[in-house]
Amino acid sequence: MGEAIPLHPRSALVLGLATLVGLLAFGWPLLVGPGAALDDATAAPLVLGVVLLGVLAAVLVAFGEDGLDVRAVAMLGLLAAVGAVVRPLSAGAAGIETVFVLVILGGRVFGAGFGFVLGATTLFASALLTGGVGPWLPFQMVAASWVGLGAGLLPRLHRRGSWREIAVLCGYGAVAALVFGVAMNLSFWPFVLGVGSDLSYLPGGPLGENLRRFVTFTVVTSLGWDIGRAITTVVGIAVVGRVVLPLLRRTATRARFTPA
Known about the structure:
By secondary structure, the chain is mainly alpha-helical. The chain has helices at residues 9-27, 43-66, 70-86, 99-110, 112-130, 137-153, 163-188, 207-221, 223-254. Helix 3 packs antiparallel against helix 4 and helix 4 packs parallel to helix 9. The chain is globular and about 60 Å long. The N and C termini lie close together (10 Å). The mean pLDDT is 84.
């Protein structure tokens, strides 16, 4: 099956390097040594946010140089707009988050490259719509782009649209929703509690100690919300997946992303 935004060797290499930089940007609290510049709670989120925006820009440029089909751009704009409208209706209430349903189904049908861009553009459009632009936005965009990327990389099944494919997507959605929550926690954890709490980031502390503090912080502050996000994603895929997947696949076939 063809992809709306195919991963050619050059764009795949850029995407791999961008993912590595993104992992370092999220995981820096567990990696930096004593006295590192990133211990500055004021500068670090801004610096890392700019780095992640550069990462996303590099991936988009690589995709553009390999050629973007105008029909792929149109479909990307349509799905991102739908996601931007749907997200404010659910986000913020007991962890309910429906936007990942669309990102996962879109990445599954149109491929990993499309899923990566769809995750980032959907979160960006949603932030513009709701006024949610801030230092956290680049982290949200990158984390959501990984959700779409992973959906496109899932193994293909012999029978598309079957209950087995829905089960695979539900399982992936649950894991992706939980990992998204953990990643976002890691991005802002060093800046929210200050020094002195047993849950706070210990600048330059041992990896094991900071990891223990982070796990405790996640369990105490956000695990319930993350589980709510995972349940919502699973239920959403289970309910609409059997209907939306064939619709998207027929669209892909008519647009000649895939052979008829």
